Amino acid sequence: METKLTPRERAHSRLKALIKKYQDQKDALQDGNEAKTRLLLIDEVLKALGWDESEFNPEAKSGTAGYIDYLLEYDGKPCLVVEAKKYGTTFSSNNKKTITKHEYPVSYFKQAFNASLTDAIKQSAAYCWSTGVSFALITNGAEWMLFQLIPSMGSSIEKMQGVYFGNLFSESFYFDQLWELVSKDGVSQGQPHSYLYEINYSPSPVCKLLQSEIGPLRWWESPSPAFLNEFYSEFFGEIIHGKRQKMLEHCFVGDSKLEQYKRELKSILKDSKPNFLPPESEDFDPMGGKEEIFKEVGSGRVVIITGAVGCGKTTLVNKALYEARRYKKGTTLPLLVDLINDVHKRASNAKEIILKRAREAISDKEPELRKNAALLKAFKSEIKEIREGPYAEIYDNNEERFIEDRAAALSRLIDDDELYIKRILKSKTSDNVNVVLILDNADKASEDFQEELYVTAHSLAEATGATVIITMREFTFFNNMNGFLDVRPDDKVIHLKTPDFVKLISKRLSYIEKHFDEDYRCSDWRRLYDINTFKQASQTYSSQLRENLLKNSDGSKIIEVISCAAWHNVRSFYSYLGRIHKDLGADASYWNISHLIASFSVIKELEKKPVIPNIFIPYGNDNYCYFLKLRILHYLNDGLCKYPIYNTVI
């Protein structure tokens, strides 16, 4: 008796009866419409699989996607989209592919059947996204197939595996699997989820935790090659101080398009203007930023130059100052207030510190402004007030008395740093001299200090007509944009992009090869080294870097990985480059990406952890955001976790 059968056996019996009933009517079904197919076949099959008509939820509204043929519900919750089509014609094969098994990616289904199935999949996917139901059953009454149409993260619908149960009227129809995945019992137990997620699982990116698997790695180190450390300290350090001005002249990089980062990584790696900057902010490479500084002189406004850590903000302003003093002498007065040694989280009195440093900059760069003639011109209104004041008649008869009183008054006036700076700078702008005051390296200060700096910058710009430039890291700008840094309408914001590392390296190497003898430090090198040996070693190392980074087929990849590890910080980039050069040996003729990863994966002497303790190998090409993933993991390692378990390289 059927009552003694299991639910599965009862369903199989009902389907056999259904197949027998309509086996001889297949031709008539071919001429039927969608509603007739649904009524005669699909409804009956669903009932056989244990679904009640009350759970069919036919013609359910699905937002802008339209009306779903069936939205099967279990316990009041939608769990399966059913797309019903006319029997026969919808899924007829176009002979491009042959169906010989029952699991294929969606892309294969689209090729194996005609365009009507492609449309059905597209429509079903819209229903799935609209309802949040991941799975869709597509059928024309005879052929049945099941898809996961909300793809797994990092994949696409085209790559999702679907199940082809076959033709209901064929002896090869997979009834057992249909029952397991589509019956009410199977769906209530989560079988579609378990099965389809399993066959659509892509192996996770391989992450080998080297330290856990084989213990800490240590690099066998030979003695450091002669002059290699000196090579990096002399030619790959900052170029803004003292006798390095010749390098500043030749090695400053202007263009920054980061073209070496290719295809899918380009949009991630490209250093573009952050969307939190004001809409009217301008995005410049370093050369454009330098020219923009000169455009702003004499504007009496505040200009904020923001960019990532190590992108070259300080180098930019020093290059601008260098060129202003060299080529615009007499027409431009550039003044740099470097606050790097004055600021920390507990620093206060920003105004006092800025005024003191600004006064020192004036005295250092423009000693003429300390002389009496310049002071008389700067304080002429105060002097006039004294001359025409209560003692005017006395001064008429006693010029020496006036000179003495004037000197005493000037002495008191110049003791006031704020008044002195405002009067001196105003006197210069009145003579059509473009005054540029740059406030640099205040990012480590407290928010109160930075707020006072911002207010002081505006006060000086308004009182003197000078352009006051503030350099600021992107994070500092972002962190304060809803606080004190409510950018005023007249302020200008310039975003400075990170220089192109290929050009940075190329210019430094060209400088070593072509301008070594012109460097202002040659006299120091003669005193410290055998300069001929140092020159020969430097040019050998330079040639080696050129071969391995600029000519080698792996060169761009090596630069990309170092750049990733350094977060585009130029100083960190050079530091890592020196480390790699030492590890791989000054006599090595060829580097490749594996050499770099090996170097980064070991513990160095006196270091607590390697740069990259874990190896991360992307699976396939499904996800094009691995660089972003690397950055997040790198941040977790360096910013949040004291143990190096997240740091990774691809």
Automatic annotation (TrEMBL):
GO terms for molecular function: ATP hydrolysis activity. SMART domains: AAA. This is AAA+ ATPase domain-containing protein. It comes from the Bacteria. Pfam families: AAA_22. Residues 299-500 form the AAA+ ATPase domain. The lineage of its organism: Bacteria, Pseudomonadati, Pseudomonadota, Gammaproteobacteria, Alteromonadales.
